[in-house]
């Protein structure tokens, strides 16, 4: 019974690790750090071979720069392209980027500011760990015509159809229902523009 439970936990971790890796190197590193910490506590003598392998994978992931991360590089190319037609200087052209993992959200927020030359007040992040008051502050700010916010990077679904018609799926959720719900955040009654969704 214990062996079956242990095998099940191992499979669950592998699945979780795959999901985080499909999101971003940053998300996978976060998952690895949590797993390594747990194993080191359980095996203080370090006699668990998995620990060395996990650390090796973590070290390899830490070498991946934003320029090396092809999906992120494609996102930057899209946002800078004339075809997409988005510019942070346009007051009436905001966009929403959805991602599954909070660590990926933070990664995007940090690097998009640098690579797009965004000021701190031009990008906001939203996730389920934030208070209702803080989430509402961001939504209210995003909706004002004079708002400086040009980008919202989110792992939390909030109706934004009055505020933006552009949505980018940085990663694809494993649940089709979540995918449809993301699209529905900008594609619903009251939207005056043609919804523009991209899957990276």
Automatic annotation (TrEMBL):
GO molecular function, one term: hydrolase activity
InterPro entries, per database record: Helicase_C-like, P-loop_NTPase, SNF2/RAD54-like_C
Source organism superkingdom: Bacteria
Gene3D superfamilies, per database record: P-loop containing nucleotide triphosphate hydrolases
Domain Helicase C-terminal: 71-200
Pfam family, one: Helicase_C
Record-linked SUPFAM superfamilies: P-loop containing nucleoside triphosphate hydrolases (SSF52540)
Keywords for this protein: ATP-binding, Helicase, Hydrolase, Nucleotide-binding
SMART domains for this protein: HELICc
Name by which UniProt lists this protein: Helicase conserved C-terminal domain-containing protein
Species annotation: Sharpea azabuensis
Taxon lineage: Bacteria, Bacillati, Bacillota, Erysipelotrichia, Erysipelotrichales
